Every structure is written in structure tokens, then in C-alpha cells.
Amino acid sequence: MSGGAEERSETRRRVGAARRLVVKVGSSSLTTAAGGLDTARLDAVVDAVAERCARGGQLVLVSSGAIAAGLAPLALARRPKDLATQQAAAGVGQLALAHAYATSFGRHQRVVGQVLLTADDVVRRSHYRNAQRTFERLLALGVVPVVNENDTVATDEIRFGDNDRLAALAAHLVGADALVLLSDVDALYDGDPRRGGARRITEVAGAADLNEVRAGAGRVDGLGTGGMASKLAAARLASSAGIPVLLAGADAAVRALGPADVGTAFAVTGPRLSARRFWLGHAASATGRLRLDDGAVEAVTQRRRSLLAAGITGTTDEFHAGDVVELVDATERVVARGVVAYDAAELPELIGRSSRDLPAEFRREVVHADDLVVVH
Ligand SMILES: Nc1ncnc2c1ncn2[C@@H]1O[C@H](COP(=O)(O)OP(=O)(O)O)[C@@H](O)[C@H]1O
Ligand SMILES: N[C@@H](CCC(=O)OP(=O)(O)O)C(=O)O
């Protein structure tokens, strides 16, 4: 697609040269057509990861496949639809998956450590930092962290939903230099490749390159969850936060983790955010909303100013000082997220009023510019 040869080589060069890498592999790449764990394919991914570690890389492997690996032992013909059976299958399958990874990495004398995360671990700032410390120590010890969502306890409300998103969040959390998404498809296409006639896309320089792309669901036999749409969302999330992304086929793992000359490369589209600002913009869950008038939207998004009470026209009523809130425009479109400095109960008296008309204790900003991230 767009992007000249120079740009092309720069993204791939960065992926190829990355010291710290998050690699994500999907369920459909780790399971046989019959639904069992495909150890030959798992070994091939492990070989590529171990080889990169041997060259001095620090790798984090985000692996799906717990539910898929639990199907055969439980004599389930297909992925269950209800959450309780999915969780039971994940409980059985995660153990099989962890065992398979430990055995496979053992062939390379590599120790692996299992990290099971729930959305809460990134949503709450203290948990986020705790997870960061754990990864840091595992990597310092030369261990390959094998990460999955903690499916057995994650309920619908608190799920990451898909491991592509989890991998993008993990990539920022560990300060990765690049993110590699391995799937059962060799690249991004402008339409579902199973339909025929779809064109392969090798480079994505920015959002405009995705305008014509139709990202569909995964296989009909449905072991993967998000299909290409969740991969694209994850690639955009990571690349907008300064992390280059490569999407490639799991069967080309050696080249994806070697010269990075396969698949689709997503160039970075934004600066690397600090851990706090990334968390604020992408990981934290908001507990309330502040509605802004047009002037305040402009001040906050264009001039990067703090939000003052004068520019607020309405609020929801259940948040406390220190909570993360969404800042929305008159049409309820989210324009920014930030940490609010007041309880919801305090604001009705203040909103719409200029700071100089307020008592001294209420003259501080409602959301300080340092605690505010603009949403594009
Ligand atoms: N535009 C597209 N480009 C590439 N693949 C697509 C596209 N739209 C849909 N797909 C399908 O998405 C699938 C990958 O998603 P999924 O099965 O969820 O993978 P994983 O298990 O690796 O997460 C591919 O098998 C492919 O057929
Ligand atoms: N955590 C789930 C996988 C969720 C998921 O995103 O799967 P996939 O689309 O195959 O990457 C599991 O291990 O079964």
C-alpha cells in the first residue's frame, strides 16, 4: 500500500532489530483441524522465539489456545458458547498449554514462566505497576513469560475480550521495541482472503491505508475469537503508541522473528507515550463523563490546556476525585480521558462558572493537562 521503500525498510528494520519483543500467537495457529493442540506448530513458534532469545532478545510470548486445548480432554466437539463451559475448558487447557510450552522451550534449555492476567491487572494503576515489575524481573532472569488472559476467573464484564488487545497492552507495559502478531493467515488483505480476489497489503503507514480494508471474522469452525478486526485494532493501538507491529503467519515465525521480511508491517503513527499516559488513554476504565462546550474541546484537544469548570456543561454523577473520566463533546463523542480532581457531587455548583467567580478552594483545574490524554 502506501509508504515508500525507505519507510518500508525502517519499520521492518525496527522489528528485526528490536531487543525486547512481544510475540502473540492465536488459537487457530496452535490447534489441529480436529481441535487438539498441534505440538509440531507450537514447537515451530517456540524454535523461532528461542532462536531470537539466543541472539540477545528479551521475548514475551502471549499465547491463546487454552480453551481450544481444553476441548479434546473434555470431549467437546467445538468451542462452547456459554462462559462457564469456556472457563472450565480454559482451566483444563491452560495446564496442557503451559506443559507443552515448558517441554518445548526445555529443548532449548529455556525456562518459561506463566503470567495469567485479568483486565483488572491493567485497569488499576497499582496492579499495572505490579505486573510491570513482575515482567521486568522474569526478563532479567532470562525467563520467557508466557502470557494469557486468566480465563477461568474472567467474567464477560472484566475480560480483555481478545488476546490481540492483551498483546498490544502488554507490549506497552513491558516497554517492548516491537509487537509481532502471528496468525493462521500470512498477512493483512484488503478483504477476507478466503473469498478470493483479495489483495495482500505489505505496509501500513497510517490509518488512511486501512480505509479500503474489510477485516472479517476468523474461521467458521471458530477457534480464534477476534478475526482480523481485533488484530487491526491491536496493531493500531500499538503503532499509535510508538510500537512498530508485524502481522505474519505462524508458519513463517522464523522469518517474522528474523529479518522481519514477511507479512504486513505497521509503521508507528505516534510518539511513545509514558506508561502513565498510555495507561490513562488505553487501559484504565472510566467511571464517569464530563461534557465540554466547543471552546473547552478546542482548548483541551488543540491547545493541550487543562480543563476548567467554565467549559463543562454537564457530568455524570458517580465518580470521585482521582477517578478516570471521559471528556465528551456536545455530541457525546469521547475527545479525551483524564483524572478528575473533584468528586461528582462537587461539580454542579462549579460548572459553567469562571475560576475568578469561584471560592479559592475551587479554583484548581477540573482535569489538569498533565493528567489528560487526547483520544483520536
Ligand atoms: N482482511 C483480512 N485479511 C486477512 N485475514 C482476514 C481478513 N478478514 C478476515 N480474515 C480472517 O481472519 C483470520 C484470523 O483471525 P483468527 O482466526 O481470529 O486468528 P487467531 O486465532 O490467530 O487470533 C484469518 O484466518 C482470515 O481468514
Ligand atoms: N484466552 C483465550 C483466547 C482468546 C483469543 O483472543 O483467542 P485468539 O483470537 O485465538 O487469539 C484462550 O486461551 O483460549
UniProtKB/TrEMBL annotation:
GO terms for molecular function: ATP binding; glutamate 5-kinase activity; RNA binding. Signal peptide: none annotated. InterPro entries: AceGlu_kinase-like_sf, Asp/Glu/Uridylate_kinase, G5K_ProB, Glu/AcGlu_kinase, Glu_5kinase, Glu_5kinase/COase_Synthase, Glutamate_5-kinase_CS, PUA. It catalyses: L-glutamate + ATP = L-glutamyl 5-phosphate + ADP. ATP binds at K24, S183, D184, T225, G226, G227, M228, A229, S230, K231. It is found in: Cytoplasm. Keywords: Amino-acid biosynthesis, ATP-binding, Cytoplasm, Kinase, Nucleotide-binding, Proline biosynthesis, Transferase. GO terms for cellular component: cytosol. Pathway: Amino-acid biosynthesis; L-proline biosynthesis; L-glutamate 5-semialdehyde from L-glutamate: step 1/2. Belongs to the glutamate 5-kinase family. HAMAP family: ProB. This is Glutamate 5-kinase.
